[in-house]
TrEMBL record:
Gene Ontology cellular component annotations, sorted alphabetically: cytoplasm
Domain of life from the UniProt record: Bacteria
UniProt-recorded name of the protein: ClpXP adapter protein SpxH
GO molecular-function terms, A-Z: isomerase activity
Annotated keywords: Cytoplasm, Isomerase
Function: Adapter protein required for efficient degradation of Spx by ClpXP under non-stress conditions. Interaction with Spx stabilizes Spx and exposes the C-terminus of Spx for recognition and proteolysis by ClpXP.
Coarse class of the protein's main subcellular location: cytoplasm
InterPro entries to which the protein is assigned, alphabetical: Adapter_SpxH, Thioredoxin-like_sf
Family to which the UniProt record says this protein belongs: Belongs to the SpxH family.
Localization (cell): Cytoplasm
Length: 273
């Protein structure tokens, strides 16, 4: 593949026992990022015991500094809502300040709302509502959303994108646990088997695939799934995947969210009495 390059390790490797670290460069609202998400979810389900992920937001946006100052009045209690294409990225970085898992939950929900296209994802009010839906600490999130730290974290992502000379979005850079070794940059997106092969090459051993969880457990892990994602993860065709999803819809286990462009499935909230 012509779009694979070697890079120097930018930071110290992770201290956890997973030997591979993936830097995933995405524009979170880009259609290509949503396509890569399907591949990454399958990779996490089958081989997540080998690697950790760091998402790097790589949308080039102007006027970020002025945007931060304009936000201060909004987050301090004013009712005026503002919109700007920088806001989703800043909000994602604000969510990450509550931890990696919180950041992942928030990123996934932002992408879900953007996919459904039923609300303005560039709206400050929408992004606050998303934080509530994924159960973030709201006082902390509102404070961080308007802080220099969140804007600076986004600027650091843009700097890292330039430093690693990432010119195509999405891209993934693979690093192993040896800091002296170069990273492997894969520009663009490829079939699942390509990433599987790269993991095996970096580890220097045959991969051991984890058993795929039951569908109900999969919805505990991912808030929403498309029919295509279910088909990909279970290596079945979309007709069979849809049939299984409809069974669970009849059992009141999942619900279907439909627009003219896409269908999403999510676990149905259990009613308690």
């Amino acid at each position: 593949m012509n779009n694979i390059q070697l890079l120097q390790q930018p930071v110290a490797p992770s201290t956890c026992n997973k030997p591979i670290e993936l830097y995933i460069f995405i524009d979170p609202l880009c259609e290509k990022a949503l396509s890569l998400q399907t591949t990454m979810r399958k990779l996490q389900v089958e081989y997540g015991h080998y690697f950790t992920c760091r998402y790097v937001l790589s949308t080039e946006l102007s006027a970020l500094n002025s945007m931060t100052s304009r936000m201060k009045g909004c987050v301090s209690g004013a009712e005026l809502d503002i919109t700007h294409p920088a806001l989703p990225s800043i909000a994602i970085k604000a969510a990450e300040l509550q931890g990696k898992r919180a950041g992942f939950r928030y990123l996934n929900k932002v992408q879900e709302v953007a996919t459904l296209n039923t609300r303005n994802i560039n709206s400050h009010a929408t992004l606050i509502e998303i934080a509530q839906q994924v159960n973030l600490d709201m006082d902390e999130f509102v404070s961080d959303f308007g802080s220099k730290e969140a804007a600076r974290a986004f600027q650091c992502d843009l700097y890292l994108t330039r430093e690693m000379e990432v010119e195509e979005i999405p891209s993934i850079v693979f690093f192993n646990e040896c800091i002296e070794d170069e990273g492997l940059k894969v520009s663009g997106s490829y079939n699942y088997e390509v990433y599987e092969h790269i993991l095996a090459e970096l580890l220097g051993e045959e991969l051991i695939r984890q058993p795929v969880p039951a569908l109900d457990e999969l919805f505990d892990r991912f808030s929403t799934l498309t029919t295509a994602e279910v088909a990909e993860i279970y290596s079945i065709n979309e007709q069979l995947a849809e049939r299984e999803l409809k069974k669970r819809m009849l059992q009141q286990k999942v619900e279907r969210i439909m627009t003219d462009e896409i269908t999403l499935w999510r676990a149905k909230e259990r009613t308690t009495y």
